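Lab meeting, item 3. Inverse folding demo.
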């Protein structure tokens, strides 16, 4: 009998879209400390390009107001249509009227990083159990 090697689960990947570099660096660093792999983007366009590359993505955390052609809401709409298995959390200093149903959660700024990461973890745990989000 040959013992089977333990397969380590793949590290969860979260794409963080935030044009404010200090905010993005803070949430990205805290996520890494919690064991997540983080892909940082300062524009929703860049995040979508990464997601289209077929690299595994488990969640997107995006500011609504981002520079260039796509904003966070448009990114969430695109992901809902083309990648419905990727949960999206949007954040903003402004309200999210009428768009709450298309994302898993909305986190108003300024947000508590610890609570936000706990929310992300809960959504990913729900997803891995196959429960509806």
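The presenter then showed the designed sequence:
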């Amino acid at each position: 009998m040959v013992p089977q090697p333990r397969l380590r689960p793949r590290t969860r990947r979260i794409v963080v879209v935030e044009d404010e570099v200090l905010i993005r660096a803070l949430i990205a660093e805290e996520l890494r400390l919690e064991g997540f792999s983080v892909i940082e983007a300062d524009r929703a366009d860049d995040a979508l390009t990464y997601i289209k590359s077929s690299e595994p993505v488990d969640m997107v955390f995006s500011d609504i107001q981002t520079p260039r052609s796509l904003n966070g809401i448009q990114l969430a709409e695109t992901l809902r249509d083309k990648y419905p298995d990727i949960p999206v959390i949007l954040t903003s200093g402004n309200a999210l009227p009428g768009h709450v149903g298309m994302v898993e959660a909305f986190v108003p700024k300024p947000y508590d990083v610890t609570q936000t990461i706990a929310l992300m973890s809960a959504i990913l745990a729900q997803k891995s159990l196959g429960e509806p989000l």
